[in-house]
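Input record, target 12 of the design panel.
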């Protein structure tokens, strides 16, 4: 039985939940066109077209409460990236808006749960929006000169173009990615930046031995 989408080689197919389809066909809070000057007080960005996905987000944060009042976004990405970002935009603005502290804790797993799941080969698409969100939160604190609240990614950046860290690779291995191809499917590491692949292979071996006793 074929799924909602079939791969180019016709060998695999997968299904999307009705919630994913709804957010893909009717994306919430999508920014059509360029942002108007002064409309937002924070901006975040992750990825690049060379990697296959790029996401930009804009936020208006209430300075008094530090709650996210408005969240707009646009992406050069697949249907799963669109649905994930659309859902994230709803989650951070519902119920009078998340505080920046709460929004920083939003995880890809939280977004996927609200979407009713994503096909395993599309898990990595939900990673983009939480990274762009954290980038925008840091930008807000930078713009308001609250430099002590800026949280640098504690993990080591392996692929600066795709914003992939050693923690992302560790998480991919824990989720069952045992090869560099499988890790790339989840994180996009090295797709537009192949010179980082030897370091990625070393990390895969390290985490496989650490957690599973194999290399």
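The sequence produced for target 12 reads:
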């Amino acid at each position: 039985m074929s799924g909602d989408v079939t791969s180019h080689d016709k060998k695999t197919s997968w299904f999307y939940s009705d919630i994913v389809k709804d957010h893909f066909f009717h994306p919430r809070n999508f920014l059509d066109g360029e942002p108007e000057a002064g409309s937002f007080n924070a901006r975040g960005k992750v990825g690049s077209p060379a990697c296959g996905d790029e996401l930009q987000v804009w936020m208006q944060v209430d300075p008094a409460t530090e709650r996210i009042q408005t969240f707009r976004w646009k992406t050069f990405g697949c249907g799963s990236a669109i649905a994930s970002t659309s859902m994230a935009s709803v989650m951070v603005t519902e119920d009078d808006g998340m505080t920046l502290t709460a929004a920083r804790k939003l995880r890809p797993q939280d977004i996927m749960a609200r979407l009713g799941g994503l096909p395993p080969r599309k898990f990595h698409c939900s990673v983009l929006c939480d990274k762009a969100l954290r980038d925008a939160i840091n930008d807000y604190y930078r713009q308001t000169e609250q430099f002590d609240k800026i949280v640098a990614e504690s993990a080591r950046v392996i692929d600066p173009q795709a914003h992939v860290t050693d923690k992302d690779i560790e998480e991919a291995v824990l989720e069952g990615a045992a090869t560099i191809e499988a890790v790339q499917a989840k994180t996009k590491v090295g797709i537009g930046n192949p010179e980082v692949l030897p370091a990625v292979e070393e990390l895969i071996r390290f985490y496989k031995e650490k957690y599973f006793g194999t290399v």
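The longest strand covers residues 53-61.
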